[in-house]
Design brief:
This protein is 52% helix and 14% strand. By secondary structure, the chain is α/β, with parallel strands linked by helices. It folds into two domains: 131 residues, Response regulator (Rossmann fold, 3-Layer(aba) Sandwich), CATH 3.40.50; 56 residues, Orthogonal Bundle (Arc Repressor Mutant, subunit A), CATH 1.10.10.10. A six-stranded parallel beta sheet has the order 2-1-3-4-5-6, sandwiched between helices. Pfam families: GerE, Response_reg. InterPro entries: CheY-like_superfamily, Sig_transdc_resp-reg_C-effctor, Sig_transdc_resp-reg_receiver, Tscrpt_reg_LuxR_C, WalR-like. GO terms for molecular function: DNA binding.
């Protein structure tokens, strides 16, 4: 029996996914989470074979969870199930150690089969997305990414500095670097470009 935790912030989709997968004789959904932090708690308490998670959720993202699980729950494989067919997301997911990257339009029987293959130790990546994964490389550093993400949430330089324990001038420098690398006119455009590419 493959023990599975599902993490998806859309409650209706979470319920539908759980119902579909529980129709399989060899898959048991042992936990459902609607946020990244809730998913982390379930992985710690249930110790599932697999965590199937969305990328964008309240609290920890699916990529944060994958990175965390690699060091703290090595017995739990992580697979991403998302609407975002973005090469940048796939690259970061692979770097975080995910075993699968699937799109939400995947038919139910293919999803169940992918779960079995991941449980057997294989890596399963949506084939069309795999072809584009390395077409565009992320030019941002981790710190530039953090600063740009907070700027995109509407925080000013001083607030970003407080959040990241940086001087306001340092924040301005990171933003300037990110804007230049992305050939954007301002921080808003830089955030949009980076987000569209899956780099945030």
């Amino acid at each position: 029996m493959i023990r599975l935790v599902l993490a998806e912030d859309q409650t209706l989709l979470l319920g539908a996914l759980a119902s579909l997968l529980e129709l399989e004789d060899d898959i048991e959904v042992v936990g459902r989470a609607t946020s990244g932090d809730e998913a982390r708690g379930l992985v710690e308490s249930e110790k599932p074979d697999l965590l199937l998670t969305d990328i964008e959720m309240p609290g920890s993202t699916g990529l944060d969870l994958a990175d965390w699980a690699r060091g703290n729950a090595p017995g739990t494989a992580v697979a991403i199930l998302t609407t975002f067919a973005r090469p940048g997301y796939l690259r970061r997911a692979l770097e975080a150690g995910v075993r699968g990257y699937l799109l939400k339009e995947t038919p139910a029987e293919q999803l169940a089969d992918a779960i079995r293959r991941i449980h057997a130790g294989q890596r399963v990546i949506d084939p069309e997305l795999a072809l584009t994964a390395f077409d565009s490389s992320d030019p941002l550093t981790d710190r530039e990414r953090q600063v740009l993400r907070l700027a995109g949430e509407g925080l000013g330089n001083a607030e970003i500095g407080q959040r990241l324990h940086l001087a306001e001038g340092t924040v301005r420098n990171y933003l300037s670097e990110a804007i230049g690398k992305l050939q954007a006119d301002n921080r808003t455009e830089a955030y949009r470009i980076a987000r569209d590419q899956g780099w945030l």
